[in-house]
Specification:
This protein has helices at about 1-30, 70-80, 85-90, 90-120, 135-165, 170, 175-200, 205-215, 225-240, 245-260, 270-280, 295-300. The chain is mainly alpha-helical.
Length: about 300
């Protein structure tokens, strides 16, 4: 059983990484996107003042300093607080936020188990009585983060499901995938919680399981820990096909659409990309659009 569980865990992680790499490569190869053209952009030096470099004479000929870290921290804040949801629909946010944090914390929990596994196979002891502060720190962190992820994830899964069912404005836009995802995530967090509460209160089996994965000396775990690991692996296989891909796509949406302010100047690579797109044939028609003509031809009409 432990061999099957270990092999399935390897497969789930490799599959997730493979699909994400394929998706990322696909996004990076996509055509230039339309963008907002709203200024000032967050990485401008004068931001958040109302003025912009666009007010300067011949701005496109000057080298512009960009503060990318400001955008990066804005995105982190957006990920961890979800303030737009809180302002727009507070009741929905009350369910969305713990659900969202449960997901982030469970990923962090797995990362800490991975680090703990490395520490164990190098001869370290991860426990509350470890002679090393590193071992004690890893013990408490995995325990706190793991339990928090199970609890917040369970509460969030239930609340967001109820929001979707009883709020008409949300229900009208719901699809089957929403409800399947809520069920899958609840099962994920519940099995983790049950395993911790009833069979492995120190979460020791997870750390030893990861140590076994890293040393290829697979460790036996209890039934409920095995069930949770199986559910987690299935969740990783399911993850790339859910809307939770937006953890990655939001990065592209902010940096390559919302904040992209690269000027289209003569001779630039952007000009060449746009020129190739304008030569593409239009495949649909309308009273003002002739099918089969290029975008350049239509613009000249």
């Amino acid at each position: 059983m432990e061999t099957f569980l270990a092999l399935f865990t390897y497969f789930a992680h490799l599959f997730l990484i493979h699909v994400y790499i394929v998706r990322l490569a696909k996004y990076l190869k996509m055509p230039v996107h339309l963008r907002w053209e709203l200024y000032p952009v967050i990485h401008e030096e004068k931001y958040p003042s109302a003025s912009s470099y666009l007010e300067e004479k011949d701005w496109w000929l000057k080298k512009r300093k960009k503060k990318y870290l400001r955008g990066f921290f804005f995105l982190l804040k957006d990920y961890f607080i979800l303030s737009d949801y809180a302002k727009g629909k507070f009741l929905y946010w009350l369910g969305l936020y713990p659900w969202h944090m449960g997901f982030i914390l469970t990923m962090f929990f797995e990362f800490l188990c991975f680090i703990s596994g490395l520490y164990i196979i190098r001869g370290g002891q991860v426990s509350d009585s470890s002679p090393s502060i590193v071992g004690t720190f890893l013990y408490h962190m995995t325990l706190i983060i793991g339990v928090l992820s199970f609890l917040t994830g369970m509460v969030g899964s239930v609340l967001i499901f109820l929001n979707r069912v009883f709020d008409k404005s949300l229900r009208e836009y719901a699809v089957l995938l929403h409800y399947i995802t809520y069920g899958v995530t609840f099962l994920l967090f519940f099995t983790g919680f049950y395993s911790w509460f009833f069979t492995d209160p120190k979460l020791e089996e997870y750390r030893l399981f990861w140590a076994g994965l890293l040393s290829f000396d697979f460790s036996r775990v209890g039934l409920w820990t095995a069930i949770h690991i199986m559910v987690y692996d299935l969740f990783l296989l399911y993850l790339p096909y859910t809307r939770w891909l937006h953890y990655i796509t939001r990065f592209f949406a902010f940096f390559f659409i919302r904040w992209d302010d690269e000027p289209n100047i003569p001779g630039s690579s952007l000009e060449r990309k746009v020129a190739r797109l304008l030569e593409k044939k239009v495949t649909w028609s309308a009273p003002h659009i002739d099918k089969g003509k290029s975008w350049v031809d239509l613009a000249r009409v």
